[in-house]
Amino acid sequence: MIDLFIIKVGGNVIDNPELLQTFLDKFAAIPGKKILIHGGGKIATRIGDQLGIKSNYVDGRRITDAATIDLVTMVYGGLVNKQLVAQLQARSCNAIGLTGADANIIPAEKRPVKEIDYGFVGDVQPDMLQTGPLKALLEAGVTPVFAPLTHDGNGQMLNTNADTIASSLAIALSDRYQVRLIYCFEKKGVLSDPNDDNAVINLINKEIYQQLLENKVLSDGILPKLQNAFGAIGNGVKEVLIGHADDVLSNTTGTVAGTLIC
Questions:
Q1: Structurally, what CATH architecture does the domain formed by 2-261 represent?
Q2: Where is the signal peptide (predicted)?
Q3: Is 39 one of the annotated binding-site residues?
């Protein structure tokens, strides 16, 4: 099977010009087929403040009301996405910017209201994805760059977790490609001590994961990545890496830096 690297870059890298430029240099240098999924960073919050659109969060998750879905569609799907594509083109990486609505690649369901109404937030399952157009782009040598947006099939855009989009794409494409899913952010990997950047846990399997959960070692911010990682591993994805954005190029080779999920 042909190798495919699916790489998600976090918002803290998007927000840091120096980290971002280094990441893009290394991402562009990755040979072969690759997909980039990006978060939104704090840009939507800043522009929302300028437009008088207040940001509301519950447990760190953005409440996406009618004004906010317009805002994040504009910022994530427009400004951030197209700036990344333009910068990759400058690095001779032939990229195309996409949301989940484009070519109906990532349809989603609006999250049901339970204790909390998250608004226009989409939940996606890998079996919902329409991978034909995506495979055609990859076979044509084009690098897709996805904003964290999906759609409900009825004309409504939905704000969707970028980690979940990355995991879902990895699972859906594992029927044709040997996929390595890489989560890149500002840390060197999963840390046993959130205050020590060098306390990297190099390998996590299901047993180790359960021990870490029971011992409450893991920070809240890393849990969604690990949940998505194990979801991918259990559904056909060969391997998942969580590590620093600076290590993205080496993490597409046999030299692994960060945390390997298996």
A1: 3-Layer(aba) Sandwich (3.40)
A2: none
A3: no
Is residue 40 part of an annotated ligand binding site?
A: yes
Query: Is 205 annotated to bind ligand?
Result: no
Length of the chain in residues, anyone? 262
In the predicted structure, residue 194 carries a pLDDT above the cut 90: no
Token look-up 């591993």 returns 233
62: annotated binding-site residue? Answer: yes
The DSSP line for the chain is -EEEEEEEE-HHHHT-HHHHHHHHHHHHH--SEEEEEE--TTHHHHHHHHHT----EETTEE-B-HHHHHHHHHIIIIIIHHHHHHHHHHTT--EEEE-TTGGG-SB-EEPPPSSS--BSBEE--GGG---HHHHHHHHTT-EEEE-SEEE-SSS-EEE--HHHHHHHHHHHHTTTEEEEEEEEESSSS-BSSTT-TT-B--EE-HHHHHHHHHTT-S-GGGHHHHHHHHHHHTTT--EEEEEEGGGTTGGGSS---SEEE-
